[in-house]
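How it folds:
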Amino acid sequence: MTAPEPRLLVPGRFSSAAIKVGEGELDVRLSDGGNWQVRVRLAGEDGWRLLCRGHLDGSIFEAGLPDDRTPVSVGPLTVDPAGRRVYVNGAEAPLTAGEFDLVALLATEAERVFTKPELLRELWGGAGRSKVRALDSRASRARCKLREAGADGFVVNCRERGYRLWEGDAAGNGGPPR
C-alpha cells in the first residue's frame, strides 16, 4: 500500500498526509517550525483523536488527557476524553474541537492554574503573539458556551498567569472545594 502524497494545506504553514491503515486512517502533519502530530480516525468514528505530537528535535509533547481516557467530573461538568464530549448536568455542551481540547486539558487538574506558555505548548506546540490571542478567544468562547449550558464559573482567566477550569464554590455550582 502506498501512502498518498503529502498535501500542502496552507502554503508556508504545514504539510499533511492522510494514510489509510486497516479499519481507519492516520493523519500526519508537519509544521514549518518543526512541530509534528499524528492523529487517528477509526472506521465509524466522526472525529480525529490525537495519538501523539512533538518536535523534530526529539521532544514529545504530552496530550494532557488522562491516559485511561475515563470521564472526569467537576461539579456539573463531565469531560469525556474518549468521546471528545463535554456534558453539563448530563446534557452535551456544543464545544468545537479546539474548545474541547482546552477544557479537557484544564480538567486534568481542575483547580490548578495552567500558564499561558504551558497551554500554548500543549494546544499548538509553541508560542506567538497571534496564538496568545487565539488562546484567549478560545477560552472566552468555551466559557460562554459552558455558561449557556448551565456551568457558570468554568474556564477561569487568572490575570497575567493563565487559566484554570474551576472558579470554586463562589459560583454556587457545588463543585470541588477550594
